[in-house]
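Memo to structure team: turn this sequence into structure tokens by end of day. - J.P.
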Amino acid sequence: MIKILCIGKMKDKALQALSSEYVRRISAFTRVEIIEVKDESNAHAEREAEASRIKDSEAERALGRLRDPDLVVLLDLDGRMWDSEGFACRLKDWQQLAGQKGGDLVFVIAGSLGPGTALKKRADLRWKLSDLTFTHLMT
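Reply from structure team:
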């Protein structure tokens, strides 16, 4: 099973439809579950201490949805990039490894301020989608 753990809810109807379409396509090959956890308001996140507090709070909420045997892939700007072919090969390996551990393969999309320290530490792998800049909801 693949789980996609998102900090924050997808509010845009067009992106929800696109997400549903991709889940439908992937479901032909494996079970997929999308889990959304509440994000924090970041209206005052211009202060570094407040941004850090928000990221840590969101990380704790996300960590509460993970199990020890899960293989966690964190989407992270500091992660490693793979091309489509390399990712496809790794995806199969990651699913097998997660299954051997008795867990699920879980992709974690952090909140708009990025992942908290505890979430980075929990991640088995960190994946950078691209050098391009995307809106948070597009990831």
